[in-house]
Specification:
The protein has 11 helices and 14 strands. It has 300 residues and is an alpha/beta fold. The chain folds into 3 domains: 84 residues, Winged helix-like DNA-binding domain superfamily/Winged helix DNA-binding domain (Arc Repressor Mutant, subunit A); 95 residues, Periplasmic binding protein-like II (D-Maltodextrin-Binding Protein, domain 2, 3-Layer(aba) Sandwich), CATH 3.40.190; 94 residues, 3-Layer(aba) Sandwich (D-Maltodextrin-Binding Protein, domain 2), CATH 3.40.190. Strands 4-3-5-14-6 form a 5-stranded mixed β-sheet. A 5-stranded mixed β-sheet has the order 11-8-12-7-13. Strands 1-2 form a two-stranded antiparallel ribbon. Helix 1 crosses helix 2. The termini are far apart.
């Protein structure tokens, strides 16, 4: 007996609620399906269905077998699809969404190599700092650096940790002094990111584990991290940034760390994508690529 075929038949009969409906869907006779299920019951040594002239009832053993059938058949389907897709080159349009600063500073480091690796793939890039509804806007993958992911049906793959730093231009510190205490820090001008709930507040952890909320006067606020970066380099005040935003400015001395020894909560780079039983080859290709790329720390 072809047990896999019999399992498919049994699942179809249970799903549709009758042998007649299952036979019509499969394009075979009622007798053929009934014989398959009877042979299956004989081989298993358990009655799976109670049959009467009016109704079909799944037995306790049948319900248990049905659950295993569903799991096994779906695994077989996933394996077949994965083996088939393994032979496919990613093709079509890949819709990728990233925050504006990430697009400006990070994509140039790895996206050209990714595109060259998959020449039959067209990347449609969406750079925005607003909330993106992946399903509504038909986005395949969203790369986001965040400290909070809302509960949803989306899948989030962690790629890297992003340290958050307090920085300022050397010229600003020469004029206003390097803060060495919470009180001194609170008197300095803060360049605030206006999309935050509390743009004037910093949540700091001290070297001994102490926690402190600092409220600072704002000299400038903006909804663009890149605009705040330019303002910080221009010497307008102290600002907090993900390290990837300021790593080049720290290397060449345009910005320097402020209030070292105290830390801001780190954030995380995620690849977020709609939940699906089967990932399209283009999506899997991007996820695997960025997972490998960011497995090496990039922003130290």
């Amino acid at each position: 007996m072809d047990q896999l075929s019999a399992m498919q038949t049994f699942r179809r009969v249970v799903d549709l609620g009758s042998f007649s409906a299952a036979a019509a869907q499969a394009g075979v006779s009622h007798t053929v399906l009934s014989r398959q299920v009877k042979n299956l019951e004989r081989e298993l040594g358990s009655q799976l269905l109670n049959r009467t002239t009016r109704r079909l009832q799944v037995t306790e053993a049948g319900a248990l077998f049905y659950r295993h059938c569903v799991q096994i058949l779906e695994q077989m389907q996933a394996m077949s699809l994965e083996l088939s897709e393994h032979q496919q080159q990613p093709v079509g349009t890949l819709r990728l969404s990233v925050a504006s600063a990430f697009g400006d500073l990070e994509l140039g480091r790895w996206l050209p190599d990714f595109v060259e690796r998959y020449p039959r793939l067209h990347v449609e890039l969406n750079c925005t700092d607003r909330f993106v509804d992946l399903l509504e806007e038909e986005i395949d993958v969203c790369l986001r650096v965040t400290d909070h992911l809302p509960d949803s049906s989306l899948v989030a793959r962690r790629l890297a940790s992003s340290e958050v730093l307090l920085v300022a231009a050397p010229g600003y510190l020469a004029r206003h002094g390097q803060p060495t205490s919470i009180e001194e820090l609170a008197s300095h001008a803060l360049l605030g990111y206006s999309r935050l709930t509390h743009p004037q507040r910093l949540q700091l952890s001290g070297p001994a584990g102490e926690q402190c909320d600092v409220l600072m006067p704002r000299r400038l606020s903006a909804n663009s991290p890149m605009a705040l970066r330019a303002a910080a380099i221009g010497g307008l005040g102290i600002a907090s940034f993900d390290r990837f935003i300021v790593v080049d400015a720290l290397k060449d001395g345009r910005l320097v760390p402020v209030f070292e020894g105290w830390q801001l909560p780190a954030r995380t780079l995620y690849a977020v994508y709609p939940q699906s039983r089967y990932l399209a080859p283009k999506v899997r290709a991007l996820l695997d690529y960025v997972q490998e790329y960011y497995s090496t720390p990039r922003w130290r």
